Structure formats: C-alpha cells, structure tokens
Amino acid sequence: MFFSIIIQNPLIMTLPEAFIDDCKTHIPVAEQEAFIHALTESEPAISLRYNRAKYKGMEGQPIGWNPQDGAYLPQRPNFTLDPLLHAGCYYVQEASSQFVTHVLRTLVKEPVVALDLCAAPGGKSTAMLSALPEGSQLVSNEIDRRRARILSENITKWGMPNVSVTCNSPFDFRKLTHIFDLILTDVPCSGEGMFRKDDGAVKDWSPRKVEECVTRQKEILNTIWPTLKTGGILIYSTCTFNVHENEEMLQYICEELGAEALDIPVEASWNIHPPLVGDLPCYRFMPHFTRGEGLFLAAVRKERNDKESACPVKRDNKKKGNAKIPGGTDKHKLSIDMKKTTADLLKQLVCDASIELTADGTLRAIPTGHKMIYDALMDQGLYLLQSGIEMGTIKGRDIVPAHALALSTVRKDLAFATVDVDLETALNYLRHEAIFLGASVPTGYVIITYQGHALGFVKNLGNRCNNMYPQEWRIRFL
Predict the structure, then answer these.
(1) 437 near 419, Cβ under 8 Å?
(2) Closest among 221, 188, 194 to 294, alpha carbons compared
(3) Are 399 and 378 in contact (CB under 8 A)?
(4) Rounded to whole angstroms, how far apart are CA atoms 232 and 181?
(5) Which residues are catalytic?
(6) 439 — alpha (psi -120 to 50), left (phi > 0) or beta?
(7) What secondary structure letter does DSSP report for 290?
(8) Would you state the CATH architecture of domain 416-478?
(9) Superfamily (CATH H level) for 100-302
C-alpha cells in the first residue's frame, strides 16, 4: 500500500505507507509533519566540491562542514557543458556527503593506507584523496563492473597519483588482514535519502528490501573487518533514514565486532540531527533539519585483535625506475627499450615512482609511497582497473600517452606542448570531434587545455588532429 501526497506543482510524490509508519515509530512526533513536508515538497539543494589541487577559485555559498572545498549553488547549471567539470576541477556532490571531509580532517592526522570499499561513482573517494594527510594511500573499490568504470573515470579526472581502482567483492580482500588504517563503508542501502531526487528509489523501496540490506550490510562488515588494523578507523555511512540500517547497525558493529564509537565535533549551526534511538555518537542529515539529502554517518575505532595474523606486505627492494615485466612476457621481445622508456617516462613526472608494465602493454607509474599496497593488491590477484598514473600503452615502437597522464596533478608542465582553446573548441574536443590547432602548434602529442586546465591529448598531424579523448566519455548531446 502507498500513501500519496499531492503537492502544488504538477508532480505527485508517493511514499510507501510502511515507510511512513516506520518513520512515525522513531522520528519525534513534533518533527514528523516537517519531515514529510521536506521530503515531498521541497527541492534538493545543488552543491559541488572543488579540487584544490587543480582549482583555487570559489563560487557559491560555502558549506558549513566543508567551507574550504564545498559550496551550494543558487541553481543547477548544465554541468555537462562546462569543460572544467571534465578537467576534474570540481565534483558535483550532494552537500551532506561532503561531511566525510570534516570527519577525515578531524580524526586522521597522519598518513594512512585507506580503503573505500563501495566507492562508485567516486564522490567519497575523491573527497578522501583531497582530505587525507599528504602521504596517504587509497584503494578505491567497486564490485559492479559498469559502475567501476564510472568510478575509474572520476578518479582519473581528479588526477591524484596515490590511488588504485579495483573491481572486486569484499570477500576478495579477505587475505589482506590488518593492512588498512582506515576503511570507508558507504554500504548499499534502501536509499530512502534519494526519494527527493529519484522516483525509482521510491518504487524500489519495501520493508523486505530494508531487511535484505541489513543482512547484506552485516555480511560486508564481517567480511572486511579483519582487513582493518587494530586501532584503525572504520567510517560507516548510508543514504537512508531508517534506524535498522543505521543506529541498530552501529550497535551491531560495537557489540559484535569490537569497536568504539567515536565523537566528532560539530557546530550547532550545521543542524545535524541527533540519533533517533540509542546514545552512541552518530550523525544524521535529515531534510527538515539540514540543507542536504539523507545521510547517516558514524565512525568507530577497532578495539580488539582478530585471530588472523597480519598479511605480509612485500617491500619494494628494486631500484627506483626498474620496470616490472609481467609473467609470461619475454623482455627481449618487447619492441621498445624498457630502460630508456622508463627514464623518459619518469622525466614527465614531479614525483618519485617506479614503472610497471602490465600484461596488456599498459605502462603505469607507481609512486614510491604507493608501491607496497600496489604489490599487495597484485600479489592477491585483485582486479586493478588503474593504479598510480597510467602513463601510456605500447604500440609497436611508440608509446601512446594515456588520458590519465594529461589530467594528472603530478605531470610536469613542460612534459608536452599545450594549447589553450576557447569554449566552442573545448566542447568539440569533448564530443570527440576533429579539431584544427593551426600551423604554429608543434606536431606530435599535444595537450588541449581550457582556461589553463588540461582536458586531454590530441595527436597533431599538422593539417589535422587525431582526437584522443576517450570515446566512452564523450559528450553525446549539446
């Protein structure tokens, strides 16, 4: 059965009656009318988060819990037609989700090895890359192949080198015991916080779905818990309202897994809702309280030891710059000089790294600090979509530069010729159309920029350019 609310605009918001009943059980009576009104008759806020490694400007109203990076916009622009979005200068992220930046900056003061377990489409992973202390390393994982490709695209645009993107189930990480200092579990949930933005979320909701989500969440937490070091921090979050997936799950983590719930200082002006049940510290973003969508977040510290011994992480004893030739590849059959190629590639970067050659001919630059976690992922056979800086691909005797290299924040400015283009040319480039750069531009691989920010490569042939923007990322409609 469904409970219908007719609002003054032409839209009709229909909420499941069972959802309304469950909310009435836990939401204070004085707030129930305001909650339903906010959920059904108010418009979602528009917000974004800037990439300070690329963009220093600020537009819009700062978000209270993320004033240095986040901003509300007065209205939603056509983000697709802004080349700066495609350059990774900002990420369109719901304001409540940006609370994770405040949590990280409050709790994490030293470099960590971190895992974002359910990371697609990449909002929280890019936030982690910006908010974690310098020297931190991130594994950004998504189990679904299609969503993992979207995650990889957004990580590439963000341009940070200290990250590996994997496509694995939580079970695949089971042998990496006691390896992570920090784990973010933005777990699959019933999605009640998406009701204002997605009609499909309303249609898909049911009490049974909530029960299934609770079971799945416990499975995920139990599976990934041994990979967290004793004393490490786990951040648990959902985008749903019910207490079964939130406060009751936090209680489960503390009682069954051996964790201490952590207090996070917040300001009263942020209007973060207190717990609906229990007294464990947790943080609710409710539409009738806070300018944002539904978010529940809690942070816990792992207190007791697991029985499993720590996974041995192999240290890199190779000399810097050596290329790792994958099994089955005959180094002597390569069509390029790997020693010279390694030296040439490292000259394009401003960080220390080693060059890794994958079985498909992709060349990766793995920053020195990321090498141990990279090797651990490879040793356990996890599926890596990308890692470090994807530098290029071997094509005969040529190295075709990767799109990720153009967007990287550690690429040397003078590594390639660059051409700054106007908006029309930038959009044509992003549509994967042919563009002409003029006779004064050198031939070879050239980086196209817009307002000084890299969009990607072309191969300039003089009379024309081969557009190297990834086909699957192209703008299809203007």
Answers:
(1) yes
(2) 194
(3) no
(4) 5
(5) 239
(6) alpha
(7) S
(8) Roll (3.10)
(9) Vaccinia Virus protein VP39 (3.40.50.150)
Residue 367 CB partners (closer than 8 Å, separation 6+): 161, 162, 351, 352, 353, 388, 389, 410
pLDDT digits (tens, 9 = 90+) for 296-322: 999 999 997 766 545 554 434 333 333
* Helical spans, DSSP H, in 108-194: 123-131, 145-158
Question: Would you kindly state where each structural domain of the chain is located, as residue ranges?
Answer: 100-302, 312-403, 416-478
For the beta carbon of residue 355, count every other beta carbon within 10 angstroms. 23
> What angle is formed at CA 151 by the lines to CA 149 and CA 156, rounded to 5 degrees?
95
pTM for the predicted model, two decimal places: 0.92
Given a contact cutoff of 8 angstroms between Cβ atoms, the answer to whether 190 and 140 are in contact is: no
Burial call 6-34: b when 16+ CB within 10 Å, e when fewer: eeeeeeebebbebbbebbeebbeeebeee
Q: How many Å apart are CA 312 and CA 281, to the nearest integer?
A: 34
- Report residue 447 as tokens: 């980086």
Distance of alpha carbon 349 from alpha carbon 440, whole angstroms: 26
Tokens (6 digits) for 17: 């009656």
Structure tokens given for 384? 């890596």
The helix (H) or strand (E) run that includes residue 140 is strand 137-141
d(CA 117, CA 224): 9
Question: Which amino acid belongs to residue 427?
Answer: L
The pLDDT tens digits for 242-298 are 999 999 999 999 999 999 999 999 999 999 999 999 999 999 999 999 998 889 999
